[in-house]
Design a protein that fits this description.
By secondary structure, the protein is mainly alpha-helical. It folds into 2 domains: 211 residues, Rossmann fold (3-Layer(aba) Sandwich); 92 residues, Tyrosyl-Transfer RNA Synthetase (Orthogonal Bundle), CATH 1.10.240.10. The protein is 52% helix and 8% strand. The strands form 2 sheets. Strands 1-2-3 form a 3-stranded parallel sheet. A two-stranded parallel ribbon has the order 4-5. Helix 3 crosses helix 6, helix 9 packs across helix 10 and helix 9 packs across helix 11. The longest helix has 30 residues. The radius of gyration is 21 Å and the shape is globular. The protein starts with a strand and ends with a helix. The protein binds tryptophanyl-5'AMP (TYM). The site of tryptophanyl-5'AMP has 23 residues, from strand 1, helix 1, helix 6 and strand 4.
């Protein structure tokens, strides 16, 4: 089992990232060889502030370590430090088809009405993502629901490359999406939108850096409805905000939604919200404290990332070499 996944170093780490991906990465460190990276090349597809990007890479690396990614057990690095990612992405641009990329919902969402003014990189972004996982022969790619389509594309690219060049070079990666709400944590302000770092409202998401006070306030103000909680999960249908909050509780406590509802059935959000805030604070406060400690030693973060990059390069170089050979570049 080879586990590979990445996160963009834009904005801070939020609850959607934590439940959908990072805490699942942490659990997988015992199951197989893991490579986790900061997708800083992907961050170039939207507007770039160089100083901000430099700072964000360190901050996100520290946030991952604070959340439990262990550089002694997993290979942690920044994507741009391993040039094989960009080189393989270029080779795979010859394999990926325009029509496949045009179907990507994330490009449609991110480019919006301004498709003509979007960067070319935003369009070909999933090809780089395919290179990220194919370089390391990933078998499992733990991600949130929103990345599933990109990984299905990575499978299509791998399959076509293997067929076109009569090779078995690339392993078909399996998108590994968690269950329940963890797969898609929704905004606290709108149960139909995913929790996202690009949402202009800070109140829509819980950040790893939020104080206990702020967490409690965001949950107090989270949108809900006036009905009491039901005993049966099926009765949460049509109540997107209620379902999301109950799902978050279930994911944090690692127990089924049924168990959460058994405890709160018949009660309103006046009772449920304080319990949820407490559970969130219990999860986040220790991670936030570790993050604050790690921030005081940026040289150590740089060192960890450099060691990780060295190890990643050793795995990536032979794959790139084989890909060059397969297409006739060697
Ligand atoms: P990114 O940086 O947007 O998000 C990092 C991880 O967090 C998950 N996630 C969520 N999960 C549940 N609910 C949410 N509201 C939520 N928001 C984010 C994402 O699914 C992701 O797993 N393209 C990727 C980064 C990437 C990558 C890769 C991932 C680059 N190369 C190779 C896997 C493999 C991205 O922008 O994730």
């Amino acid at each position: 089992m080879r586990v590979v996944s990445g996160i963009q170093p834009t904005g801070g780490l939020h609850l959607g990232n934590l439940l959908g991906a990072i805490l699942r990465w942490v659990r997988m460190q015992d199951d197989g060889e893991c490579l986790f990276f900061l997708a800083d090349l992907h961050a170039l597809t939207v507007e770039v502030d160089p100083e901000q990007l430099r700072a964000n890479v360190r901050e996100m690396a520290a946030a991952l370590i604070a959340s439990g990614v262990d550089p002694a057990r997993a290979i942690l690095f920044r994507q741009s430090a391993v040039r094989e990612h960009a080189e393989l992405a270029w080779v795979l641009q010859g394999t990926a088809r325009m029509g496949w990329l045009e179907r990507m919902t994330q490009f449609k969402e991110k480019s919006g009405k301004n498709k003509e003014r979007s960067s070319v990189g935003l369009f070909t972004y999933p090809v780089l993502q395919a290179a990220d996982v194919l370089l390391y022969h990933a078998t499992h790619v733990p991600v949130g629901e929103d990345q599933k389509q990109h990984l299905e594309l990575a499978r299509d690219i791998a399959l076509k490359f293997n067929n076109d060049f009569d090779t078995e070079l690339f392993t078909l990666p399996e998108p590994f999406v968690g269950g329940g709400t963890a797969a898609r944590v929704m905004s606290l302000r709108d149960g139909s939108a995913k929790m996202s770092k690009s949402d202009p409202s800070e109140m829509s998401r819980i950040q790893l850096t939020d104080s206990d006070e702020t967490i409690a306030q965001k949950i107090r103000k989270a949108r809900t409805d006036p009905a009491p909680l039901p005993a049966d999960p099926s009765e949460l249908a049509g109540r997107a905000e209620a379902r999301n909050l109950v799902g978050i509780m279930a994911a944090i406590q690692d127990r089924p939604v049924e168990a959460v509802l058994a405890e709160f059935a018949g009660q309103g959000f006046g009772a449920f919200k304080p319990a949820l805030a407490d559970a969130l604070i219990a999860l986040i406060a220790p991670l936030r404290a570790r993050l604050e400690q790690l921030r005081s030693d940026p040289a150590e973060i740089d060192r960890i990332l450099e060691v990780g990059a060295e190890r990643a390069r050793a795995l990536a170089a032979p794959t790139l070499d084989s890909a060059y050979r397969a297409v006739g570049l060697r």
